[in-house]
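Q: Can someone sanity-check these two? First one:
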Amino acid sequence: MIFVELNEAELIQRELTIRDLRVSKEVLQTKRAAARWLALTLGIINPGESRLSAVAVLDSMVYFQFIKKQDPTVKEMTDYINQYWEPINEKTLRYHLLRMKRMGYIDNEQSKFYFRPPSTGDRFDPHIWSNVMFDFFYKEISKKIGDVINDLKAKENMM
């Protein structure tokens, strides 16, 4: 029997962490609590993580995309975060934007950032955005899982 060793790190196209968190009354009490809940749910931060910079960046994206209905620049996000959270330097802001881009949540064009728009529907509607975003990710992964299981079944029949 031949066993081929794989370099798993090279196979990873995207990692998705989506947590099904309860929405308690405490979550909805403050803007910070709601933003932290969203960051935990989307896998942008981990449980127990105390750094707020990633939460602040996500909150600024939500503010501009779904409230102001505009695509912000780094300066606009910096100004927002400095006003409503705590001072953030540009390097930290860009780090979190790049992480969210690698996660597949946001994109940028002409120095402006935005949540990846849905293929159909209002891109400023949070329900449409989240439904289309996660439906796409999971359908893509689900198909691959089904294909590999079918391949395993075929190999089992050959034994």
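And here is the second, same format, sequence then tokens:
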Amino acid sequence: MVRVKDIPMPTRWAIATQALTHLVMAADPKQCTANPAYLMDELGEEIRGIADRYQMPREDAKGLVQTLGAISVILFGPTFETPFIEGFHEESVIRLSECAMFRHEEEKKRDPSHVNRVCTTYVKSAISALNPEYTIRVSRARCKGDSFCEMIIEKKRK
């Protein structure tokens, strides 16, 4: 099981700086204009590399929810920490009552539909890079007026 508290602080710093450095180096305005998801795809690739380097689980939905959760907390802060809700081989559920991207004090500064697009693109890129046999869908979102966020990681249907 991967939990943020089990990852030493120097390792957390290394993961965060590696991911941000990768994004800064990959930021090509031409690519970003041509493909708005470009940077999130790059971040997804970096997340896969992090999972490889630190041998994080990602072979099934249970492992994916743990790995995505740990890396997201390291990158975006403790508001992305979630207790392990339900995790099975083919489906897992993430529930968040807080969000680093959408906070009540920021609602007037950020368009909620933009926040939703960014978040959805982030989690889809991360899951796709970690294990392309799985997908993630957002069933509830604070930025869409729900009281919490809920994301379901599941094995793709053939």
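A (reply): Looked at the second one. The chain has a mean pLDDT of 86. The beta strands are 86-87, 91-96, 134-140, 149-155.
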